[in-house]
Amino acid sequence: MRTFIRAAMIFYRFLSVGRQLWPRLRSLVLGLVLGVLLPWLVFIRLAREVWEGEGLPGDHFILEFLHAHSSHTQDKLALLLAQLGGPIGASVLAGSILLGLGLAHQRRAFSFFSLAVIGAEVLNIAAKYLVARTRPDLWVSLTPLTSYSFPSGHSMAAAALSAALGFMLWRTQVRWLAIGLGCFWALIMGWSRLYLGVHYPSDVLAGWVGSVGWVGGLHSLFARQYRELRAAWGEVRLYWHGAAAQALARDDAPAGMDPQQQ
Q1: Which of 47, 73, 201, 206 is the most exposed place for a label (fewest CB within 10 A)?
Q2: Pick from 82, 49, 111: which is nearest to 199 by CA?
Q3: Residue pLDDT, tens place only, 190-206
C-alpha cells in the first residue's frame, strides 16, 4: 500500500510539472509535428516510391510540359540559377552568412546555421547513394549530369539555407520578408532543375521537405522550450530518485524508527 501511495505521489509530481510547462511547450510540440514529423514522413514516402521504381504520377508530364514551353530567356535564367545554387555558389552564399554571424559574435546562430547547411548536404549525399535513382533522360539537357538524381541537391541546399534564415530571423521585424524571399528562392531553384531536365518533380519535392525536416528538428534542439523540457525532466528524475531512496530507507529501517534518525 505504501509503495502504491509513493508511486501515485511521483506521478502527481510529473503531471504538475507537465501542466506548468505545457503553455510554453505547445509551440515546440506543434513545430515538431508540422516542421519535423510531417516533412520526414513525406520524404520517407517519396524515397519508398522512388525505390520501388514509381515516383510521383506527374513526374514525366511536368517535365514534358516545361520543355514544351521552353524559351531562350528561360534557358539563360535556368543556367544562371544552376551556377548560383551549385556547390560553388551555395558555398559562397552560406560562407558569407557565416562570416557575418562570426563577426557579430552570434555563436549560437553560427552553430545552428553551420549544422543546418552542412547537415543538409550530408543528408543529400547519403540519400543519393541509398536510393540511386538515375537522372531523367527525356531530352538532351543544357547541363547533362550523370550523378544520382534523388533528392535534388540544389533544391535541398536552397531550402536548408532559407529555412535556417527564417528560423534565425523569426523574432525580428523582417521575418515575413525573409520567409517570402526564402520560399521564392527555393521555388525558383526547384523550377530551374525541372526546366533543365536534370531532376524529376519528386526529386525536388524530396529536397524541399528533407531540408525542412532536418532544419526544423535542429531548431527544436536549439529552442528555449527544449532546454526547459530537459530541465523539467531533470527535476522529475531528481524527485524520482529522491523518493526512491527515501522509500528504501523506510523499508530498511527497524520498526518504529524514523529513517532520518538512523
Answers
A1: 73
A2: 82
A3: 999 999 999 999 999 99
pLDDT digits (tens, 9 = 90+) for 28-57: 677 778 888 899 999 999 999 898 887 888
The whole-angstrom separation of Cα 131 and Cα 50 is 7
For the record, the C-alpha cell of 12 comes out as 502527481
- Which pTM does this prediction carry? 0.77
DSSP-based helix, strand, coil % in the chain, nearest 5? 80, 0, 20
Please tell me the distance from the alpha carbon of residue 208 to that of residue 150, in angstroms, as a whole number.
Answer: 12
- Compute the distance between CA of residue 69 and CA of residue 3 in angstroms, rounded to an integer: 75
Query: Grid coordinates standing for 103?
Result: 563577426
| Domains of the chain and CATH, by start | 40-225 (1.20.144.10)
pLDDT > 70 fraction of the chain, expressed in percent and rounded: 74
Q: What is the pLDDT of residue 248?
A: 47
- Cell numbers describing residue 125: 549525399
Q: Are 76 and 145 in contact (CB under 8 A)?
A: no
Give DSSP secondary structure letters for 37-85.
Answer: IHHHHHHHHHHHHHHTT---TTHHHHHHHHHHT--HHHHHHHHHHHHHT
The sign of the CA dihedral 209, 213, 215, 216 is: positive
